[in-house]
């Protein structure tokens, strides 16, 4: 989602991708040696202020510096309404921060001579097929990781999000039906499906499922013993956080959303203590505490090298200092700069969980922020505050700045929706009787949905996505709005029907109502055509 749950494409959130006062807060169960370099600041005060300002129930923070763990602890509560606190061991879903683990898993296979970055994907997955035969033949393992395939932003994510009944193999097989948005290798567009393919290669070359391979080859050697590779594993642990989303502008506990078919893109659940171990080995060029290489220094450098340039967007004036001079994607990591230093980072977003992992190689500094709410400004305000402190630059009141920008952006979206609603042709009516819109519809890559009359309402159901069920209400002309029963999705969508000259339905298209809807609800990529009307079954 992405959740993941990469972030919504607003100027404010792109700036997020793009200060701490008193004694440092050190986790009692992860205390660093006295020699660890720690600037004097009050981490607790700023984190608790951010939790309150951005209405985030719980958060875990890890900071590593010069190979030492400075901070690995939790704040707030695991679940709203319950007293259990977040600890340094509390597990959070980290969504797209899992992509770095998949990249590292492939890097290890490169070291072992089992694959090469520029091998064709079809060499290792003979059944792999994209929409275009040329792209199928030319797509390399490197291409799977760097978001330049020609697929549009989040294309095909509805095959796995929200939780679907498609298998990993089914998702991969349906890539052949997704039309590209641009030419192959022409430009950057974030995707998740190709990381699912990358995870499949790890499974094929190790002879083990992705989760088992990652456990044995990465997590166990690093001592990341609490980290899990599935939501089911996380829920069976003793210390995990509940996800939280906004429902009618109020923060609420929501149900976990398993995505076992997309683990190569979003499968890791981890804690502050474990993510500190991960950042430490990354900052050390793949070298572990025992002196052995998890992956070679050469592969570490390759993962952090610029592969695909990314567009630099203009931030709001108050956030001008966050604008990078360069912005690119590596292999599982984003690369940019801040105050003259290169940053290696990534974000993660799934329902109820947002996370950031950020490293400054020149400073041997790593910062990870894990949250149990969907609020990227909360994380950005803190990691910029921490960066300012460690980089010894003039700090800004990032919490206030991001809170102001978040409020302004949300108000702007409410006003936009209000104008859209009031400017509609309110007296217009559908071209057909409502029952004529009922039936089954099919899209080339997703498959079938249905619209049926139920209890006096017309209900849309995505056949392989149980949670995408909602009632249709008329908007204008032949456009309706589907209101999903799961109100925390923030993904209500316009549903527009196009008619043939004889008055029959030719096709149906969808588009999000809100600009704040996560791009993984890629309704715009769907084109449904009718396959059956309810009356047909009576014939």
UniProtKB/TrEMBL annotation:
Gene Ontology molecular function, alphabetical: hydrolase activity
Domain Beta-lactamase-related residue range list: 51-389
Keyword Hydrolase: yes
Keywords assigned: Hydrolase, Signal
Domain (Peptidase S12 Pab87-related C-terminal): residue spans on this chain: 424-529
Signal peptide: 1-27
InterPro entries: AmpC-like, Beta-lactam-related, Beta-lactam/transpept-like, Peptidase_S12_Pab87-rel_C
Protein name: Serine hydrolase
Source organism per UniProt: Duganella lactea
